[in-house]
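User: Need the bound-state model for zinc ion:
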Amino acid sequence: MVFSASPRLRVTPLYLPAMQSVRLIEPAQPLVDQEIPDPAPAADEVIVEIRAAGVCHSDAHYRAGRGRVALPITLGHEIAGVVLEIGNDVTNVAVGDRVAVHYLVSCGKCHDCLRGGEQFCAHGEMFGKERDGGFAEWIVVPARNAVLIAPSIPFDEAAVMMCSTATVYHALRLAGLQPGESLAIIGFGGLGVSALQLAGALGASSITAIDVVPEKLAAAAALGAVGIDARRDDLANEIRRITGGHGADVVLDLAGIASPRLAALQSLAPGGRLVLVALGPQPFTFDPYADVLTRERRIIGCSDHLLSELPELMDLARRGDIDLSSAITRRVPLEAQAINEVLDDLDRGTSHLRAVVTR
Ligand SMILES: [Zn+2]
Ligand SMILES: [Zn+2]
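Assistant: Bound-state model below.
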């Protein structure tokens, strides 16, 4: 009998280690509990033990079969946890570090990546959409996607910052909001709370929140904003009145509904900027001359955010400039039924702000 020499002892495990996950198997069907193999890190990757995963409105869209989703897949793209294992080449994080996960894996080499537009990378893949995401016990991610979080920031707040907060931060940067400028927010959900706090940290002079749900307007008022019912016929005049007749300098549209969007555009001060953040199926018609040209207003599209913005965001949170504790109104376990109920509520419309899967 001849034994071939082997440099490594190979052991065949009696069972394959598996982890709990909540997955979308078929479009327009409820998510299901499923055990899937444990992830293993490549040399430039880390494994994160997930402590919090935010449930996003996008997850409801993906479950409904909308969007380019690689099925079957573990949903969840707002992720924070503890580094459990690192690949051989990893130097930016260590085992035991508290991290949040940037949800887009981009190539870093193409024209868009190099010009600072990584969200348009043709090779980009998103956790919870094109790669397995955060509704699971662990996740494997490129080490550069792991963003350190300060000890004072809870995991659930760090998780939520990775999507909604990061998106509105990107929107405010695109708008170039300056200290002393006024902001109006259309649609006061999870993104609205983040927008309000970030705008405060950036020195906004006044913040107006526009919504139709009384609880949301009350929440905005409790955080120092002036609330307006979006159904008012004189919405543009009302925004102008609140801003001392000047008009809003920046409007973030977080709702995607045509009539308040138009009213907000018409309420803008000269040089004002309307940033379109929400997906809106309705066409948006405006008068290019009266509504835009004569007042040098700008309409800006906003898509996702950049990895480079996340440490800045974490720094604002560490300094206490943003506190998302009021944005999280629901915590659920890592179970398909609980997550499906949250998604059902998002489909129906809910007075809840953010829900987070916590472990
Ligand atoms: Zn999201
Ligand atoms: Zn790229």
